[in-house]
């Protein structure tokens, strides 16, 4: 059941003590970086004064901006010689940032991924197909090393080449897969083209899905279509990559590995700390990193902490699935909404296919919201479409308070991104 039972089920007060111990060490280590040493001087901070976890609140936040301004080596805490790996964010928002790891960091990261997927039920007898990008993106290599640590047979297939992915699954009896949720749905079209049934013709039993926001309904759709268990995997390159927070078999929130990461939730506007249970921006401090310590790193991701203990016995607190990044928020006709809310409404319709896009335009000085969505099977009768359009528009209006125009399109029509799905096309002010 447990990869590291002692740590995973550690008494909460002991866990806090371990965190404090590691926090002190990391704050001292950060003083070796050009960036934090200068911050410490500016605010007159002495890491040896830290007596409790709350003392971290005396330190400023770090954001992507600082990482960019002090690119490339401003956050390095060890001589360059000790660095064995560089990674980069996928650059979803602006210029990518770089992160450096020592050998110990890499090892520790692999252990966190192993702990995460073992928790979900992966075992050495599994054949693991890793369809995430290898290279600068952390999804591929991060999972690769973790899966090898468990002793699974790893197929480093990488992304794309969908027919070959299915051939691999069939020929090597893949049982576990790491896949973007949007790609998991897309792959269903390819199964169909090959006249194969993903429930019967492959031996998949579990998927690790993450790296992009997705709804509970999307998870269900993936689980039902493949007849598998799908587990939510959360991470970001600035912390390591995957292995920061992961779902246990309860599938009700993601355990944040608190022995490695100190989590705070803040109000992104006032920057005030929020109590457990309230939704806000996730802020992380690395507690166990040599190469590049990060203090109070603002992720821009919105979630909340579940304060109650998890029935699985792990004491590391859980966070909710990510609602989106605070810059994902759409303001349409003055109403605030997140793409994931639209997805939640869409996924409830069995007639709906595997891809959708949210299009925003200005029509006669007014915002117009159009949802383009692929349908599963073409209908002969146009009235079926009309009714469906009406029902979808109402379901979305109930969720986000704005009634969209619904555009039903044939399967495979909507252009797919190569990496993380691009759900929103904002043409406002451009037409
Ligand atoms: P980039 O910021 O360029 O996308 P990363 O590749 O490091 O760089 O991606 C990390 C981000 O991906 C997270 O901050 C979060 O926004 C998103 N993400 C990762 N895992 C999940 C997940 N399980 N659910 C929702 N969003 C996720
Ligand atoms: Zn649990």
Explain what the structure shows:
With 431 residues, the protein is an alpha/beta fold. Helix content is 31%, strand content 25%. The chain contains eleven helices and 21 strands. It has helices spanning 5-8, 12-30, 34-43, 64-69, 103-120, 138-150, 162-172, 181-193, 216-226, 339-346, 382-400, and strands at 83-88, 98-102, 127-130, 153-155, 176-179, 206-210, 229-236, 241-247, 254-256, 261-266, 280-286, 297-303, 305-306, 318-319, 324-325, 330-332, 335-337, 352-363, 366-375, 405-409, 424-426. The strands form five sheets. It has a nine-stranded mixed beta sheet with strand order 4-3-5-6-7-8-9-14-13, with helices on both faces. A four-stranded antiparallel beta sheet has the order 10-11-12-15. The longest helix is centred in the N-terminal third of the chain and has 19 residues, at 12-30. The termini are far apart. Zinc ion binds next to loops. Adenosine-5'-diphosphate (ADP) binds at residues 89-93, 137, 210-213, 232-237, 299, 301, 322, 325.
